[in-house]
């Protein structure tokens, strides 16, 4: 259960930080553009990458155990960097949502676009395959960690697409995103500390 909760918290903290994918999901969902197709496509992409990352890192840990401390400390450094970036956004108030003009397409075209935006975003590989994979490999139960991270993705994208039409005012507020970023920074720092204790 500890690994599951760690995966859930870390998965959420990484994915909540507003980026190109989330802005696209929100802008499409606020316009009511095939929200179910968007949610399922993003969830599936995340789940596949998270499972791939944790499985690959676990295999590396078994085949090349001497390499794991380097991966672990690399994960710590990345978490601290992301936490610092979140603190900077919270202090500067540089977050917030700026929606774009939405062109409604068929659900198939929207799903393909969601997959493309998910898989062509370099940050998704850094977050899911590299970071979540390396941290998951040192957990007591890597599979539960991966499942927790996948649940985080399901909760986030499910919430974004389900409640987006009513969230325009809330998510357009830089002040509220400053509070979100501060929370994200605290979670990332906590996960970095936990990872150090596992090393």
Give the tags.
199 residues, mainly alpha, 9 helices, globular, transmembrane, cell membrane, LysE/ArgO family amino acid transporter, transmembrane helix, membrane
SS-derived structural category: mainly alpha
Total domain modules: 1
Helix content: over 70%
Strand content: under 5%
Distance between the termini: 19 Å
User: How would you describe the oligomerization state of the chains in this entry?
Assistant: single chain
Anisotropy-based shape: globular
Order of helices and strands: HHHHHHHHH
Number of extended strands = 0
User: Which stretches of 5+ consecutive residues score pLDDT under 50?
Assistant: none
Work out the radius of gyration.
17 Å
Please write out the topology.
Elements: H1 2-16, H2 20-30, H3 35-63, H4 68-92, H5 107-119, H6 122-137, H7 142-163, H8 168-171, H9 174-198
Question: Could you describe the 3D structure shown?
Answer:
This is LysE/ArgO family amino acid transporter. Pfam families: LysE. It is found in: Cell membrane. Keywords: Cell membrane, Membrane, Transmembrane, Transmembrane helix. This protein is an all-alpha fold and 199 residues long. It has one domain (2-198). It is built from nine helices and no strands. The chain has helices spanning 2-16, 20-30, 35-63, 68-92, 107-119, 122-137, 142-163, 168-171, 174-198. Helix 1 packs antiparallel against helix 6. It is globular and about 50 Å long. The relative contact order is 0.26. The model has no long low-confidence stretch (mean pLDDT 79).
């Amino acid at each position: 259960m500890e690994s599951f909760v760690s995966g859930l918290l870390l998965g959420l903290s990484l994915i909540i930080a507003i980026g190109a994918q989330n802005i696209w999901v929100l802008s499409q969902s606020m316009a009511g553009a095939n929200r179910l197709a968007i949610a399922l496509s993003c969830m599936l992409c995340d789940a596949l990458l998270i499972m791939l990352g944790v499985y690959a890192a676990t295999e590396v840990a078994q085949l090349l155990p001497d390499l794991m401390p380097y991966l672990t400390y690399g994960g710590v450094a990345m978490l601290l960097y992301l936490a610092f970036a979140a603190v900077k956004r919270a202090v500067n108030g540089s977050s917030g949502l700026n929606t774009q003009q939405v062109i409604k397409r068929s659900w198939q075209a929207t799903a393909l676009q969601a997959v493309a935006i998910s898989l062509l975003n370099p940050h998704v590989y850094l977050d899911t395959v590299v970071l979540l994979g390396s941290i998951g490999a040192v957990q007591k139960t890597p599979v539960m960690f991966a499942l927790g991270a996948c649940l985080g993705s399901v909760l986030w994208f499910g919430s974004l697409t389900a409640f987006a039409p009513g969230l325009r005012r809330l998510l357009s507020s830089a002040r509220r995103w400053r509070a979100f970023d501060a929370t994200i920074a605290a979670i990332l720092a906590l996960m970095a500390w936990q990872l150090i204790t596992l090393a």
